[in-house]
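Extended Data, panel c. Modelled sequence:
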Amino acid sequence: MAPAATTPRFDIPTHCKAGVVVNEGPDFKVQVETVPVPEPGPDEILVRLNATGICSSDLHLMKGDLGAPPMSTFGVRSPGHEGSGVVVKAGSNVKNFRLGDRAGIKPLLDTCGGCELCWGDKETYCRQAVHTGLMSTGTYQHYIVSPARYATPVPDGVSDEVAAPVMCSASTMCRSLSESNLKPGDWAVFPGGGGGVGIQGVQLAKGMGMRPIVVDTGADKRSLALSMGAEAFVDFREASDPAQAVVQTADGIGAHGVFVTAPAAYKTALSYVGDRIGAVVMCIGLAPAGTVTVGDDPDRFIFQNLTVKGTWWAVAGTQPRRWISRDGESSSLLLKYTPSIGCQKRLID
């Protein structure tokens, strides 16, 4: 007879370490401080994070250059919105997590769940949404609480260092690729695709049957992009006309979709679609407010049936898990590579 399963017990400290913002604004800095460990409510879980991603949007929020209210408006000092760890305490109403389960924290901590946007698969834009690391304590803190319904289960076999950025970069790309409505066989261009978010998109696009082209620079990024599924790599420092090189690769017509993760690429994004009818430019990378625009002669949009569209990250608990697990096993599609050097921080006591 098998021994009965036992519920793990955790020694939860009263205080923990956290990276907190000092001098919020253009001259901000992050320093480590000791802060109280929060107490989960009846519908919440307390997660001891083992890893957090460090996203460029964290920098924008700490600088305050996105046009959003400052973090301090909400009493938040710790940024970060992509983390992975272990459930060490659960509220009395929680049914979907047990102590010892692994959980991921996403950029969106919670929504109202009942408005038109939430019911229409646009809950990212819910007017009552709570954004992690802006409106609630972020993943730079070792212990944080999350509504149980919005945390993402992390399967065994996937390290916390991999799972953490999946919560943001991979889920963001998954959402954008899905909403682009590109089909298998379509050309998908990734300006800045050798970066942390873009390389996730390359792998996902390849797995969806699309034909990725990466526009970036450097031998290392070329090697990475091609090994992760890109059919072509255009080095913008070497090519005399990067846009024309992309167009020639894409059947001599142009890309079906352009996925902009590097804000500097917005000004040239439309050039990659060439003469393609019905092409779409997906706006993903956040830029300081008022610094860049995407546009062209409206006649071109009419004659080519062009679309420019913005998306945020994936929602609820489904999409991130979709790309870190397949039939209970780690997905070879996504987990061949996630950014790990200079992009993540292991959390320690």
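The chain has two domains: 15-154, 171-310. This feature is highlighted in the accompanying rendering.
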